[in-house]
Design brief:
The protein is mainly β. It contains no helices and eight strands. It has strands at about 5, 10-15, 20-25, 30, 35, 40-45, 55-60, 65. The strands form two sheets. Strands 1, 2, 3, 4 and 5 form a five-stranded antiparallel sheet that branches. A three-stranded antiparallel sheet has the order 6-7-8, with no helix packed on it.
Length: about 70
C-alpha cells in the first residue's frame, strides 16, 4: 500500500498500491467501482477539497485525474 486518502466528508477512501487505485464507499463498506488501473506503480494520490476529483501520480512521472 502506497497511500490512503480520505475524502473531506469521510465517506470515500482511495487506497493506492502497486499499479491500482481502489475507491471505497465507507457508508456501505463496499468498493465504489472497479479498480483504477495505471501503467506504472503509484507514488501518491490526492482528493480535491470537494472530494469529486482524484489525482494520482506514478513513478514514471505521469499524473492522472479521475
Amino acid at each position: 500500500l502506497n497511500t490512503n486518502v480520505l475524502s473531506p466528508n469521510n465517506r470515500l477512501l482511495a487506497s493506492a498500491s502497486w499499479n491500482k487505485t481502489h475507491l471505497w464507499n465507507l457508508d456501505a463498506n463496499l468498493p465504489a467501482g472497479p479498480p483504477l488501473q495505471h501503467e506504472n506503480d503509484l507514488r501518491s494520490a490526492a482528493l480535491s477539497p470537494d472530494g469529486k476529483v482524484l489525482a494520482t501520480a506514478c513513478y514514471n512521472d505521469n499524473a492522472y485525474t479521475w
